[in-house]
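Budget justification aside, the reviewers requested a transparent look at the raw inputs and outputs of the sequence design task funded under Objective 1. We therefore reproduce one unedited record. The lines immediately below are the structure tokens for a 400-residue chain.
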């Protein structure tokens, strides 16, 4: 039996997820990824500023997150210290992009799971507000080493955030609930864009489906990634915490939120917990953006000696994107890139021993194609994915 469900994302690469069934149970999961994990390797040999200029052409998903992580890594390598104003401007840009990506999941990816209509006008309105928020920073140089010279229009930023606040509340069907019962009541009443998916999960008894003992990725210092990347050539493809797979994303970031905690306490860290964590991330985004914007200050251009751009060193940049932890590690010599590697959320969550695999092994084969698709979507890979279910004999698995 083979069931294929493709979901669009970044066109560069895809993930084929083969669910292996033996005697009515999932025995194994085979993950075949064509994601170009070492895509930043194409920038090796480039002057650092030229390489940063090319970066956004390589990543159409989470492009601001990639840019900010890369900037942080380059600045650490060249010992450039951006000002608080410039760091604040980047935070606003990242908040806006994360909100946009959470809304994309809610309004585009989740409806497609059940062949429902995509809410393009709502998404467009939210994107207009996030673009206005970023434009109001008046900082065309935020992508430059050390940052630009932001002159934020605070009134325009507040108007954009107020629009986002209203739009997000409409998507959630009201203020963010603090307890699962309230969320389920809204779903049954058809309130909020996530209502069909939440109701389906509850009605089909899938609240705890995909729950695992895989640990949630904790905060780790930059040198953790630098050391592992230098010692393990495959760390960027199969990252672990010293041999132990981990899960990243909204669930890892928001595990202690009252609503997320309520779901996990009742049903474990399964698909409902991951869906709810993303709703919490979306619902919290305008408040987070407002807190960041309140700290914004006007910035001055960075005065630096030209010799800085001919420097050498290594650095790591770490950011939390909508899909989870993103890392860029860069080595520079004489102002040129000599090594550039990344560790993306997808490689954590779709590790051979990660939450997708562990969430399926041992499950009943009944309806497994649709449930595996739901589990994969809850972990939000940033590329198209397909799900295949294959029934095999015991000996075929033993020799696979």
């Amino acid at each position: 039996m083979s069931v294929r469900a493709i979901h669009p994302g970044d066109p560069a690469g895809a993930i084929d997820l083969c669910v292996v069934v033996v005697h009515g149970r999932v025995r194994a999961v085979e993950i075949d990824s064509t994601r170009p994990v070492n895509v930043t390797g194409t920038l090796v040999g480039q002057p650092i500023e030229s390489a940063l200029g090319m970066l956004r052409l390589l990543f159409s998903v989470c492009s601001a997150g990639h840019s900010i992580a890369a900037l942080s890594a380059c600045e650490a390598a060249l010992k450039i210290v951006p000002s608080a104003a410039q760091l604040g401007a980047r935070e606003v840009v990242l908040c806006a992009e994360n909100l946009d990506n959470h809304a994309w999941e809610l309004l585009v990816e989740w409806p497609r799971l059940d062949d429902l209509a995509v809410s393009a006008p709502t998404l467009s309105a939210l994107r207009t507000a996030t673009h206005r928020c970023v434009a109001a920073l008046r900082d065309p140089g935020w992508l430059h080493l050390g940052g630009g010279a932001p002159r934020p229009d605070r009134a325009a930023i507040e108007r954009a955030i107020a629009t986002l606040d209203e739009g997000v509340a409409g998507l959630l069907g009201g203020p963010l609930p603090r307890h699962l019962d309230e969320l389920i009541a809204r779903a049954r009443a058809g309130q909020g864009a996530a209502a069909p998916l939440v109701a389906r999960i509850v009605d089909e008894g899938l609240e705890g489906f995909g729950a695992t003992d895989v640990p949630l990725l904790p905060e780790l210092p930059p040198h953790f990634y630098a050391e592992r990347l230098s010692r393990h050539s495959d760390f960027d493809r199969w990252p672990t915490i010293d041999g132990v797979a981990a899960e990243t994303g909204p669930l890892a970031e928001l595990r202690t939120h009252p609503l997320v905690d309520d779901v996990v306490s009742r049903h474990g860290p399964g698909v409902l917990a991951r869906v709810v964590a993303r709703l919490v991330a979306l619902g919290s985004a305008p408040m987070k953006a407002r807190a960041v914007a309140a700290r914004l200050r006007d910035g001055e251009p960075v005065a630096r000696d030209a010799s800085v751009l001919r420097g050498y060193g290594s650095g790591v940049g770490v950011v939390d994107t909508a899909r989870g932890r993103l890392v860029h590690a860069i080595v520079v010599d004489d102002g040129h890139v000599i090594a550039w590697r990344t560790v993306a959320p997808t490689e954590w969550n779709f590790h051979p021993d990660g939450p997708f695999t562990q969430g399926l092994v041992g499950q009943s084969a009944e309806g497994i194609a649709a449930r595996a698709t739901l589990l994969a979507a809850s972990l939000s890979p940033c590329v198209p994915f397909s799900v295949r279910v294959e029934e095999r004999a015991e000996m075929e698995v033993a020799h696979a």
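Residues 1-11 have pLDDT under 50 and may be disordered. The longest helix spans residues 84-113. Computational costs for records of this kind are itemized in the attached budget.
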